[in-house]
C-alpha cells in the first residue's frame, strides 16, 4: 500500500519573498506559472512549432498576456543527441530574449547548461538560468553570480554520474529515488552558493522524467515535500511529460488534464513554480488552487447568493 500525503505541505522556505527580474514573488502564498517556449526543430512536445524567430517571440508575448509569470526559452532539448555548438545556441535564444525583453517585463529564463550561452542571454535581458545538468559547466554558477541573476539547479542521472549533457541512460535505476535527488540538489545548491550565487537566488528542480521512468516520477511527485524540505523554492516541470502519458495511456496531445492534476499535486506538496505548455488552462488551475488555499481573493465580483434572493 502506497502512503499518500493528504494535507497541504508548507515548505520551510529560507527566503519566501523573491525579487526575480521586475517581479516580486511571495512563495509562501504564491505559485509562479512558467511557460515553455522552445526554439528547437525537435522539441518533444511542439515539434518545432516555435522554431522560427517570430513564432518564438510571439509565443512568449502571448504567454505573458495569457497570465504566465515567466517564460522559459530553450535552444536545444534535454533528450540524447549531439550537443549544439554554443554559437548556434546563442543565435537561437538571444534574439528571442532580447525581443521579449523589449516587449514585456515578464520573467525570462534561458534553458541552457553552457556558460557562454548563459552570459549572452543574461546580457540580452534574461533574469534566470535554468540549467538541467546540475552545473555540469564549472563556469556557469559564476556567470549567474556575476549577473546577480537567479539559478535553477536540476537533477538528472547524467549530472549525478558526471556524464556530459544529452547522455543516454538505459533503464535508469535508483535505491531511493527521492532521497538520491534530494541529496544531489542539496549538494549542488550549496556549491552554487559557494560560487557566489546568492542563496535567495537559488531554485531547485527534481527533474521529472529526466533519466527517470514513470514509477520514479510518480514517486517523486507523491514525495515532493521531501525535496521542498531543503528550503529552496521548488520548480516542478511536469507538463505533458511521458510519466503522465504512461499513467493515463494518453498521447502527447491528450495530456492536458493529467498535466494540470500533476501540477496541483506538486503545489500541494510544496512546489512554488510550475513549468507548463498550455498557459491559459494552467494559469486558471493555479489561480484556482491559490484561491481554494486562501492565498488569493476571488478575481470576479461576488454576486452568487450575495443578494436578497438565493441563486442555484
Could you explain the architecture of this structure?
This protein is of the alpha/beta class. Helices cover 38% and strands 15% of the residues. The strands form two sheets. The chain has an eight-stranded parallel sheet. A two-stranded antiparallel ribbon has the order 1-2. The chain is globular and about 65 Å long. The mean pLDDT is 93.
- The portion of residues assigned to helices is 25-40%
Strand content: 15-25%
Please tell me the overall pLDDT: 93
Please write the string of helix (H) and strand (E) elements: EEEHEHEHEHEHHEHHEHHEH
Give the termini separation: 41 Å
Instruction: Outline the biggest β-sheet.
Output: 8 strands, parallel
C-alpha geometry: globular
Structural class: alpha/beta
- Radius of gyration equals 19 Å
Strand order of the largest sheet: 8-7-6-5-4-3-10-9
Q: Would you identify the regions where 5 or more consecutive residues have pLDDT less than 50? A: none
Per DSSP E runs of 2 or more residues, the count of β-strands stands at 10
Number of helices: 11
Structure in a nutshell:
This protein has 312 residues and is of the alpha/beta class.
Write the layout of secondary structure elements.
Elements: E1 17-20, E2 23-26, E3 32-38, H1 53-65, E4 70-74, H2 86-103, E5 107-111, H3 115-124, E6 128-131, H4 140-146, E7 150-154, H5 157-160, H6 177-194, E8 202-205, H7 214-222, H8 224-228, E9 234-236, H9 242-248, H10 256-268, E10 271-276, H11 279-292
Parallel strand pairs: 3-4, 3-10, 4-5, 5-6, 6-7, 7-8, 9-10
Antiparallel strand pairs: 1-2
Helix pairs in contact: 1-2, 2-3, 3-4, 7-9, 10-11
